[in-house]
Design goal:
single chain; alpha+beta; Ubiquitin-like (UB roll); 6 helices
Length: 206
């Protein structure tokens, strides 16, 4: 097709004739909406830039209890799964500076509990009253964690579907049923005592 014919077709459709491979012989052109094409390219580039890794910080104390530690670990895990770096900092106050080894133990525990999704980029070091280390995401570990999470989600969905959509958790034994079970047990003990036999545990089934 000649350039003139292609240009005429593009004009009839209200589109543009864009050269996409100038080095080819003959050159390759495409009929498209060039404005829309440029917009999509710009949007794609902006999306790629928005995923650039940033440094997030998680702060701890030498005496941070396990509950708070788990909460902060969840945040660190989320940051790593999103591809960000994580700076884990232990803050010391007053006489806590005498026991800096506790901060190092805290950081080691964090690294151990984050498992295979984290790698150590910067080893723990003191900066004034702060001891910090920097973690980066392990790409293979993150990919595996995402794959396992998706698989687990599929398994749960299949289980609910097979059960006819019932998603309620098993309910605990009611107080009335508990009394009935207790009464049965006591009756068995009395019966065993009367017969001179040994008392044994009985499995109560509904």
């Amino acid at each position: 097709m000649t350039p003139e014919d292609a240009l005429e077709i593009a004009r009839e459709g209200g589109l543009d004739l864009v050269e996409v491979a100038a080095t080819s012989r003959p050159p390759v052109c495409r009929i498209m909406d060039y404005g829309k094409f440029k917009y999509e390219q710009k949007k794609k580039t902006a999306k790629q830039k928005s995923h650039s890794a940033t440094l997030k910080e998680v702060k701890l104390r030498p005496g941070t209890d396990q509950h708070d530690l788990n909460f902060k670990l969840n945040n660190a895990r989320k940051f790593l799964m999103e591809g960000d770096k994580v700076k884990v900092t232990v803050m010391f106050r007053g006489r806590e500076m005498v026991h800096t080894y506790r901060g190092r133990e805290q950081l080691n525990a964090v690294l151990e509990q984050l498992g295979s999704i984290a790698k150590l980029e910067s080893s723990p070091r003191m900066e004034g009253r702060f001891m910090s280390m920097i973690l980066v995401a392990d790409r293979e570990g993150v990919a595996e964690a995402k794959r396992l999470a998706e698989a687990a989600g599929d398994d749960v969905a299949e289980t609910i579907e097979e059960a006819g959509g019932a998603s309620e958790a098993p309910q605990p034994t009611s107080a009335k049923k508990a009394k009935e079970v207790k009464a049965v047990s006591e009756a068995e003990e009395v019966s065993a005592a009367d017969s001179g036999g040994e008392t044994s545990e009985a499995a109560v089934t509904e």
